[in-house]
Fold these 3 entries.
Entry 1:
Amino acid sequence: MDKKSKLLSTTSNWLERFCKPSIVEGIIGDLEEAFYENIENKGAFRAKAIHLFQVIGFLRPRFRRRSKHSNFEAMIRNYLIATIRNLSKNKFYATINIFGLAIGMAAGFMILQYVYHEFTYDSFIENKENIYRVQTNRYNQGELSTQWAAGAAGAGNLLHRDFPEVVEFVNLTSSRAQISYNQKYFELTHPYYAGANFFEFFSIPLLRGVDSTALKEPMTVVLSESLATKIFGMADPMGKIIKMNDATDFKVTGVFPDFPERSHMKFDLLYSFESFVNFTSDQARTGWNWDGFLNYVKLHPNTDPSILSEKFDPWLTELIGEEDQRNFRIELVLQPLPKIHLTSNYRAEIKPTGDEKTTFFLLIIGLFVLFIAWINYVNLTTARALSRAKEVGIRKVMGSHRGQLITQFLFESFFLNIVSFATAALIVLLVFPTFNAFVGKSVSYTWPDSPVFWLGLGGVFVLGLILSGFYPAFVLSNFKPIAVLKGKFASSSSGNNLRKGLVTFQFLASVVLITGTFVVYKQMNYLQSQDLGVSIDQTMVIKTPSFRSDSVMAIKDAVFKNRMETDPAITGYTSSSAVPGRTPDWNAGGIRLLTQDESLANQYRVIGANANFLDFYDLEIVEGRGFDETFGSEGGNVLFNEAAIEQIGFKEAEEALNKKILFWGDTFNIVGVVKNYRQESPKQAYDAMIFRYFPNTSGYYSVKINTANMQDAVVNMQSHWESAFDNKVFDFFFLDDFYNEQYQAEVKFGSIFGLFAILAILVACMGLFGLASYITSLRSKEVGVRKVLGASIRQLLRLLTWDFIKLVGISIIIAAPLSWWLMDNWLAGFENRIPLGVGVFLIPAITIVMIAISTVAFHTFKTARLNPAETLHDE
């Protein structure tokens, strides 16, 4: 076949497939005749081009053959036109449905992305399912005393030695040292020492340096990308020397990428662990009485962690001795790496963690809002069934079967959901950055990056489309044409009952959310209004600098204090190893009275402080005295708080005075008892605390400032600082802000809870507003008859609102025990909590009743005031 014949064959096939059979033969013949004529007159190339343009000219709708596909298109076009007409004819109800669904979808998306964010921490780490952190619990006399994220120094090392299931381990411990480069100092928030295999263990490739050797040698350090840029700018940091505490040189051997927000780990820099061993002793590898070390282990893929954990207790008994394990039991817990963020909140966490229970609460709230929106759609669509009954009857008389009607109404549901989805997407685009800031997420955090999330989200919305669309479609398609066209149609009692049930669920959810918001608000207000027993107002706290020796620190400290004494805006200052607002880092075990047996030793939180610490913070002495340098050396004296007195075995505070205690091999004398105060927030019980005297303790300077102009105070304090400490980092915070950070998680939870409670109530009220509008319009003739018979406006209002009030009442009755159970579980995490009395549930119940009455009042009042002549003129 030559090229000319092949072209004609191809174009003929196109036309036969596309054009109507009645005309295709004539078209092909005319085009073929014109083609050969053009070859003779215009040449082969031009003839082919003209032929193709002529063929394309016949590929138009007027020549197209009819097909099942075109019938489908016509059907879809018909459905689309009918849907748009129906929505435009009922703009009020369409608007309520669209915006109700849009708000529900937007709220659902934002909550789901928040929950996804919380549940996918550390997902970037390879082999994460086999990595566990060894969390340590310590007991005293059978009672749990301390839970550590960072536990015994030797835990990982010895587990790897004695259990073949542990194929690898890595350990870390924090550092408080300060670094400098060319006499310029840099602020660090998360400096740690790390084992040589850290980067290989967590599969973190270095940006510069070799993963396996960067932390192998002593006095080497690996910097985060951001810190390297801060110190060296665009210069290559490799091989450069930075100083620790002005004394020790560390060689930069690598740069690692900044850890993502979705990780329980965060580091500024990592010193080699061998450096720490050099500074201390080999006990940093094997010690059991030295806490503060993060231990991670990697298990063999076939290992059952629960079976392995059962072997730990007898192993520890053999390792540290039966008596010690009986009196001061150590318990090792394997924490799966992906669950650390949501299930761990222990001492020495690298960074603040989340809360699994709170996250599930928020997921339920988000789904509530979404379900309420879908319920609105079902309620309004089925309630308006009467107005569409004649349309269905006529369509059935004209030949439409039930399947076609179901398809039409499902198409309407699909169309309305798509419009709502587009509106929701616009809402999300507008508020997404604000929402992330609201819930405390990084401004750099954008959209979830996993196909699984988007498939799951799509699945949720498809399920909602099916659930919200199928029932109305089946109800509307089930009308009997004869009954409808004779005017004998009436809505079914089962449909009414379902509608009432859905409205009840809406308000049940609303009552639960309002109650939850109210309880969270009351609990936060209760905690923040407690008498702390310590003065934290007008207090600036500055982290003390580090120096190569204590003598240098003492000289610099004296200069700084002299400068503060000359400042009239400063009314007091002190130094201490800890300040109110956090658990003291110093946790000491094995402390007992000299007269007690070793088996009665206990653990205590310890604060090192100078002589005026108690006066500065307005702490009360209930027995004895505080530290007083006029008595001579106070280094051998200690103070106990009331909780510590009780723990060591005294019933009355005065019994403890001048008693001797054994503290890590040294003897100290108890000279005073401090009244319990809230070192941590009132969420926690009082801790047993011991105060030791240090004239120049490192940790924090606390400064009382008597001025309203804090900005000037900060400038002055920085001047004092620079005069004493040159260009050391001036790292400060205000104590009241620092203290209130302890409530941050609960405040954030309450804010999110309240926001979505408002959205849920708004969506429910939109649905109720539309439903009330439609139902009261159906009862307009009944209202007219009752007015003719003498009914008053008040009686009619009671008549029209009573059905709704009954549903709200039922929802309150069901919601009360459910709310109590949910909030009692939430409050169980607080040592000090509000009682769940009747008032906690009564106020939300009254609120929801008033909201419901206000929502339906407009339509009911409007209907009740109608002139009977207008509603009964066609009767």
Entry 2:
Amino acid sequence: MKIVYWTFILSFILLSCGEGHKADMKDYGIIPMPNEIVSEQGNYVLQGEKTVAVSSDESSMKVFQYLENVLKNTSVQLKRIAPTEQADISLLIDTTLPDEAYTLEVSSHGIKICSNATAAGLFYGVQSLLQLMPVEIYDTHRKYENDIEIPAVRITDAPRFPYRGAMMDVGRNFLPKEEVLKFLDLMAFYKLNKFHFHLTDDQGWRIEIKKYPKLTEIGSYRKQTQVGHCDYYYPRRFDGKEKQGYYTQDEIREIVKYASDRFITIIPEIEMPGHASAALACYPELSCGLGKTYVVRDYFDVFDEVYCPKENTFDFLEDVLVEVMDLFPSHYIHIGGDECPKKAWKICDHCQTLMKREGLKDEEALQSWFIHRIEQFVNSKGRDIIGWDEILEGGLAPNATVMSWRGEEGGIEAARQKHKVIMTPGDKCYIDHYQESPEFAPLAIGGFIPLDSVYNYNPLPAELTPEEQAYIIGTQVNIWGEYIQTPEYFEYMAFPRLQAMSEVQWTQLKNKDFNSFVRRLDKEFKRLDFCGVNACRNFYEVNLTGAWNDVHHTYEVTLKTFCPGVEVYYAVNDSVVSSSSDLYKAPLALSEDATIYAAVYRDGKPLGKITRKSFAVNKATGNSYQCVPPPVVEKVNEGIGLTDGIRGYTRDLRRWAIFREDSVRITVDLGKPVSVSKIAFASLWRPFDTLWPASELCVSVSADGETFTSVGNQEYTYDFTQTEATRFPVSYSFPEVTARYIRLELLNGGLCPEGYYHAGQQSRLAIDEIEFY
């Protein structure tokens, strides 16, 4: 059926392409880009009273009422008439169209939108129509009294994927109902149709369950929340502020209806068997016991507290799921299944007896048995489960759909097993990661996923055959809530990356174009502003990157902005930037350490804040090196990260090369004999991560890379009375020598000391930029 569906969609798009020319999308500003749009002559003027021909069925009426509500801030009044009558605007049913497909025709005589009987396509056609209108119709501070001129176009459109999702995590930090409704409105703008509602986790239970009132009486409350990353401060810091909140069943029903009116299905997630601390704090008898005291967690980690696969546990979970399924009509119920430590199961007598009785070879098989049993119950109610890709471990439940988050491997495996897959790999789809330089951005969980990385994601892996790719039903962005405590910050993380993902989800690959997208997004920011959305403004700022140019033997800094049609001005080692500063035209060549400041201007006015970045340019920069042993982690500029001209910083581990062994030898090849008299580098102290700074440096030099002569060594001591992660820069000076090869031998910090995390364990060494002077 899936292959037939996609064949239908593709045929629909191809056969609908008529005469005319594809419009330049900057003229229309529709996001996501329609799959076929043809410009016509003239425009249609929307003003005064207009008749709307529409059927009286519930789905079509939803669309009419939605359009009427959006236009209530204008001078336009809509009057509904029968679909058989002549009208200014026609919202019609065409049974030949596939699900969610639509056609939109705007001429000087009127507007016509067609879809099949589900009317989802009508709704999406209305979204495209609204984006053809001036964004000022969304300005709630003043009524739009002008005529609404709509360009004449013909659009034939259908989504690339049937599953187009976004996830909101309210388990970690509760967000009010009003923010949920606002986000559903914004999802509707961009034709997303699946809202994944992450309702339970270790830090909170957010949905009222009548049969188990403690889940919200106890489980929705915690006394405090960690400050910053849990591995950043020593010891951990907490804000001392109470955090609580949950949705009543009446509020859930309101949210579900609100979503349904916007053709969005809400998929609830009840985590199991892991991420269960909040539930076990309410009902500890559902655990393996083991003498633990269970609490709603006030910091973020993967905890050993998991459900014990006992009969009373399954009774509890089935009762919860019955109430959840009564509230959410979604065909899918998400049961989590990720990050489930097996420590408790390994030492639990009941679990070990159960494994022997069921012939389960290990605890991974026990997790699969657990998921199978829950799936059977959910299937008995006419529903199917979705789980994170860990549910593959020990054998995949028969009817399960896999949400692949640890890369694409889980999704590829599931598709080959003929299971439905939703691709949501963390390095492309986790938009709780940084989207602008982590050095200066608001705190995020980690990683770096800028706007263009999201946009360029293709959810169909090339290693799958077309038949296997057909099992990938869509993709989803996830907005995990560990560091998102306010609606404003949630919106900052979500936008504009959600718009980029909408085009991944909707637009056929051949029709995508990032340059077109940013032109349209430039207009769309105005609508977000009118709707009170706190979108990230990095779109209007400068992103600075530096790299060694092997051809010109210079270090070059490139200044880029996503915003089209603007000018970039910059200054070197000067924080004052204006339209009188130097205009950026080509990469900047640096011969020494420098900080570049830059800003975006349009028509002589600044669009965003001044951004800056420092670069370390010295005799080591751009040169190759060898590490023995190689680093276990080198996430940025692998193989050149230690001489790429960019120093690491404490908040982001991505820029550091991390070594596990007690010593490391780094040999830098300068390419030719060079005089050197000083070496500098930095190492990182983060006790939680077993990262301790280098204790000793030995330096030697060579002319041929074979015979090395020592030039000295130095031991280092540090101030460990710090209360937060610290970058410790050090240097070593020696009589000037001339050499092509310079070798650094570093000893790590030894065993983690008593009184700190992981006491007695071998520490690891994290170093950043190596500098020669």
Entry 3:
Amino acid sequence: MRNVHLLGASALALAIAAPAYAQQTTGNSLIDEIVVTATKREQTLQDVPISVAVTGQKTIEQAQVRDLIDLQTVVPSLKVSQFNATGQTNFIIRGFGNGNGNDGIESSVGVFIDGVYRSRSAAALDDLPEIERVEVLRGPQSTLFGKNVSAGAISIVTKRPQFETGGKIEASLGNFNTRQLRGTFTGPVSDTLAVRVSGSLNKRDGMFTNLTTGNDVNDRNRWSVRGDVLWEPTDKTSVRIIADYNKIDETCCAVGSILNGPATLAIGGVLGKPIGDPSKIFDRNVIFNTDPNNTLSGKGISGQIDHDLGFAKLTAITAYRNQKSASFQDIDFTGADISNNRTANTIKTFTQEIRLASSGDGPVSWLAGAFYQDEKLDTGRTITYGSDIRAFADALSGPVPAALLGALPAAIRPALTGRSNIYALEFLQSLATPTLVRPGSTYFQAGQGINDFYNMNQKSYSLFGQVDYAVTDKLTLTGGLAYLNDEKKARSNVVLNDPFSSLNLAAVPQFPALGLPGNIYNALGALQFFYGNTTNHAPVNYPNATESGNLKGDKVTYAVRAAYDFGAINAYVSYSTGWKAGAYNLSSDSRPPNANGVGRTANPEDVDVYEVGLKANFPGGYANLAAFKQSIKGFQSNAFTGLGYSLVNAGEQSVKGFEIDSAWRPVQWLNLAASVTYLDAQYDSFTGAACVNYDTARCPVNPLTGLRPNFRNLTGDTPAGIPKWSFSTSATINKELSADYQGFLRVEYNYTSKTHLTETTPPNLSSFDQNVINASLGVTNTPRQLEVMVWARNLTNDKYLISTFPTVAQDGSYSGYPSAPRTYGVTVRKSF
């Protein structure tokens, strides 16, 4: 009735976790049965015929892994990045992943917590509760996990309530005034009912300083509570109900200048406002005229029923989640009051999964199930100009040569009399609508901008099944099949309050004939921040007469595998397909079909992967190898271009590579582990990539309009953000100090080869490698179950950029997110 599940540990984490999890050992041998549920049924890590990395509780505690952002330090094929808001976090596996920043795009990496799908990455950011294991499944998992795991899946399994009273409380103190408190208590209410209550508090001062306001940026202020009830009325039935709530209220996130182009230099020179110094990008100082603020809350309830029917085990998981977030940001990232952005969203998600898994020891085992999701999303932003916007626009457009002032209509010359400089904006205003426009007070005024709001309802379901057939004691064949169906209904409500963006410059009859200098004309075109590249110079909301606002799609995916047990080595070959549903571009960069600009939607992603693997056991260790060729047709590229998101489908993107996970215990007191990931990625076809400032060959400026083409051809290029090499290694010394005391020392090293971070920024500005060392040292009093640990992350204070992007509304300037500095502290943990 009270099953004891073995705690999983990957080959990477196993060397550390094994002493805590071992059921049995022989000499120096590590445990040889590590149970995982990567295929939604229990299998040993060495037997499961897919590439999966599993991190256990002991590794999470000793490595000071506090959230999924930290998890990447022990899983090199997983990359996690947080951008300009707390909720803008991106998960990437084997170089594939998207979905941050644009609520219409779901992640290519699905996150599941206790079997419940979290549809947006922000929903997985709460501090991890009491963990049993974290499984990272690499490659498409659509056959068993649904439509939005085309790059992989992260499955987090928390500890169930126990029928023996126990618990744990821990407190941490560290630099930057870090204060962390976590606790969990579990015990029986009756012979059939047990509970677990957990909570956490995480506070820290900011790692960066806003030199304009003097306040900290990138602080931590979050807390969470969680209740977990387990009812086991019979040996055949268990019911688990989980309710949780988490809250984040933080000043985030730090952005620094990596190149100041002409527009940014004008802010510093002409306007006399503070701007960032690219040579001091790692000084941990930022320049905002206001502090960025982010709030995020998530709450949910789930229920899981497991019932043994004899011939099969029935599992049903029902869940409802409600997530809200809001942020306020100075999006020009300077000391000038040019533009601010308020964003908010609410996401309500209902999910239902039901499945049957066969019982028995016969040659055939099977699993069948269904999944349903119903989600309602409201999202939007309001971008408003600030008090310095007009001076900024005048500085960019520049004064009109005196020789051209004679072309002004006589009726409006008095309005400009006595001015030493007549700026191009005033000149244009006078020519365009002399009876309606007052020079200096119509265009680029504080409060103008855009209201950009959307709602989307989504319903999706999948039917899936898998059969394993043991042909012999050594050979097992597997076949899986899934039908996926998705429908999205979206509605936009975009209102443009920027009259200059609404201007059709070509319709000013005098303007083309004046022969204005090209730099003035180009500057005027560049100042049309919204809809300057559309024929109507205004939004077209949907649904409308030609756009239904509906996006439907379905797909059949499948997987076939063969696994052979050679004894000390298990080998497998597999071919699998995946699918990710179509996406809406819920930003003002979207355009009606066939219009001049980025489309409303992106088509689905189709994935296929060929993979071969070897999983070897040897005295004292493990070594697992997976080699693969993976491709995504229609990859949903979501590039930030400086004002919005360019959502387009790449024709095809592929990656060839391999992963090696290994662990070895040469002597009883020393555990060694190493993991290597090699990725050779390429755009096999991508003709619709967003155009950028620095690529003048493929994105030349049209001298007649001041605009660039919308797209460029990246076919044959290496996709940005995918490191060729990732390497992680660790060494852990476990030492018995006395009859009552045990100690450990853990050191880990993480390396990522030099990588061009973002395709919208120049490679010479945004190519970095990573060399990060983490360490921890601890002593445990075994009778008292008391542990004291000192730890440090990024011990050598390695400096790199996490990501880069074109600076908002400052063409030719670029910004980036600096890495976190060295952090260190002490943790005291008491178990009972």
